[in-house]
C-alpha cells in the first residue's frame, strides 16, 4: 500500500513538473566573530582580537591575498586591529582601530593588497563599483564608479579619489547603482539610478 501511494505521488510530481526538495549546503561553524560582512561570494569576519579573516571568491582580489582567482574555502588572515569591514562582489574595505580606512580589490583599483585611503573614518560601505566613508566630523566621502550618479556629486564621471558628498552624515549604505545616507536630524537621502536622480540628492521622507 505504501509503495502504491509513493508511486502515485511520484507520478503526480512528474506530471505537474514539480520539484522534489533537496537538502542545501548545511550550516557550519567557521569561527568566533564580533562582526561579519558578506558581499557577492566572499565573506569577511572580525574576531574578538580584532583580526580580519576572509574567504570565498577571489576573482577580483577582494580577499586581499594578491592572487586573483584563487578562491578560499578556509578563512585567511588579512590584517589586525580591525573594527569594521564591508564586503562587495568587487572590493572590500576595512576600518582599523586608529580610524584609518583600508581598501582592496579590482574595483577599488588596489589589486596588490590593502591600501590606506584616509584617516578619521567611523563608517564604511562598499558596492561592486564604489565605496562610501563617513569621517568623525560627519562628512561623507565617496569614490569609484559614477555611471549612474551613485557618487551624488552632480556629475557622471568616475572618481579614483574620495570626493565630499555631504556633511552631518551618521550612516551610509551603497547599493547596486545607488546610495543612501542618514543625517544627524534623521532625514534619509538617496541618489543614483534607483532614485532617478543622477543630478544630485533626493530627500526621502521627513
Structure description:
By secondary structure, this protein is mainly beta. The protein has a domain at 120-206: Thrombin, subunit H. It is 7% helix and 48% strand. The chain has 1 helix and 16 strands. The strands form 4 sheets. The chain has a 4-stranded antiparallel sheet with strand order 1-2-3-4, with no helix packed on it. Strands 5-6-7-8 form a 4-stranded antiparallel sheet, with no helix packed on it. A hairpin with a 4-residue loop joins β5 and β6 (92-96). The chain is globular. Mean pLDDT is 81; it is low at 8-26. Keywords: Repeat, Signal. Pfam families: RCC1 (PF00415). This is Regulator of chromosome condensation RCC1. Residues 1-24 form the signal peptide.
Which terms summarize this structure?
Thrombin, subunit H, RCC1/BLIP-II, mainly beta, globular
Helices, strands, pairings?
Layout: H1 2-16, E1 35-39, E2 42-46, E3 52-56, E4 72-79, E5 82-87, E6 92-96, E7 101-105, E8 110-118, E9 121-126, E10 130-135, E11 140-144, E12 159-166, E13 169-174, E14 178-183, E15 188-192, E16 197-204
Antiparallel strand pairs: 1-2, 2-3, 3-4, 5-6, 6-7, 7-8, 9-10, 10-11, 11-12, 13-14, 14-15, 15-16
Amino acid at each position: 500500500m505504501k509503495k502504491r501511494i509513493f508511486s502515485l505521488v511520484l507520478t503526480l510530481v512528474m506530471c505537474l513538473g514539480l520539484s522534489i526538495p533537496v537538502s542545501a549546503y548545511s550550516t557550519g561553524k567557521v569561527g568566533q566573530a564580533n562582526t561579519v560582512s558578506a558581499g557577492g561570494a566572499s565573506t569577511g569576519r572580525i574576531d574578538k582580537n580584532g583580526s580580519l579573516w576572509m574567504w570565498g571568491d577571489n576573482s577580483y582580489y577582494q580577499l586581499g591575498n594578491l592572487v586573483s582567482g584563487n578562491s578560499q574555502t578556509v578563512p585567511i588572515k588579512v590584517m589586525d586591529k580591525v573594527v569594521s569591514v564591508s564586503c562587495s562582489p568587487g572590493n572590500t574595505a576595512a576600518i582599523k582601530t586608529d580610524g584609518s580606512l583600508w581598501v582592496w580589490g579590482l574595483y577599488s583599483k588596489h589589486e596588490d593588497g590593502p591600501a590606506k585611503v584616509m584617516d578619521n573614518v567611523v563608517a564604511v560601505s562598499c558596492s561592486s563599483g564604489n565605496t562610501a566613508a563617513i569621517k568623525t566630523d560627519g562628512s561623507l566621502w565617496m569614490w569609484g564608479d559614477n555611471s549612474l550618479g551613485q557618487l551624488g556629486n552632480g556629475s557622471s564621471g568616475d572618481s579614483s579619489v574620495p570626493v565630499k558628498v555631504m556633511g552631518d552624515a551618521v550612516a551610509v549604505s551603497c547599493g547596486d547603482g545607488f546610495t543612501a545616507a542618514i543625517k544627524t536630524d534623521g532625514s534619509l537621502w538617496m541618489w543614483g539610478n534607483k532614485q532617478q536622480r543622477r543630478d544630485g540628492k533626493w530627500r526621502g521622507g521627513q
